[in-house]
Amino acid sequence: MREIRHSFKVMTYEIDFAGVVSNQVYVRWLEDLRNLFTEQALSLGELMKRGLAPALTRTEIDYRAPVRLPDVVDGRMWLEDAGRARFVLGAEFVSRANGQVVATARQTGVFVSLETLRPMPLPEEYRGMSEK
């Protein structure tokens, strides 16, 4: 199974009134990881040339521990499941300050036709990302 790894430095604009990284920041970090993951298999430009676009249908996040400035969080994402038209990505975020898993997540999605916005079969290049 292939995975993507990326580090996120906590920024001042990402913390909430309690001085903790806001929950909404994890959604953006997931988007960054998902874009990097997709680029490994097939660029977004190539997908668009084929008339396809990825679309999320579900995001689940379990927040396990708070993260504060000036921490750096290491994120990783992998393809958990690839069906005919649906994919499931797993993700994990780990604090460098203490080595603790601070959040885990899953995202479910499909690739849609840019013309009809209807789900299409997964591109073979993407399906291959689940091979061990």
**Topology-level CATH name:** Thiol Ester Dehydrase, Chain A
User: Tally of extended strands?
Assistant: 6
Quote the average pLDDT: 94
Q: Which residues form runs of ≥5 with pLDDT under 50?
A: none
Would you tell me the structural class of the helices and strands?
alpha+beta
Number of helices: 3
Distance from N terminus to C terminus (CA atoms, Å) equals 4 Å
Q: Which percent range describes the beta-strand content? A: 35-45%
Give the quaternary arrangement of the chains. single chain
- CATH homology group: Hotdog Thioesterase
How do the SSEs run, as a string of H and E? EHHEEEEEH
Helix content: 10-25%
**CATH architecture descriptor:** Roll
Question: What layout of secondary structure does this protein have?
Answer:
Blueprint lengths: L2 E7 L13 H19 L2 H6 L2 E12 L8 E11 L3 E10 L5 E13 L5 E2 L3 H4 L5
Antiparallel strand pairs: 1-3, 2-5, 3-4, 4-5, 5-6
Keywords:
six-stranded antiparallel β-sheet; elongated; alpha+beta; Thiol Ester Dehydrase, Chain A; 3 helices; about 130 residues
Notes on the protein architecture:
- This protein is α+β, with helices and mostly antiparallel strands and 132 residues long.
- It has a single domain (3-130), classed as Roll (Thiol Ester Dehydrase, Chain A).
- The protein has three helices and six strands; from the N terminus they run βααβββββα.
- It has helices spanning 23-41, 44-49, 124-127; strands spanning 3-9, 52-63, 72-82, 86-95, 101-113, 119-120.
- Strands 1, 2, 3, 4, 5 and 6 form a six-stranded antiparallel sheet that branches.
- Strand 5 and strand 6 (119-120) form a beta hairpin.
- The longest helix is centred in the N-terminal third of the chain and has 19 residues, at 23-41.
- It is elongated.
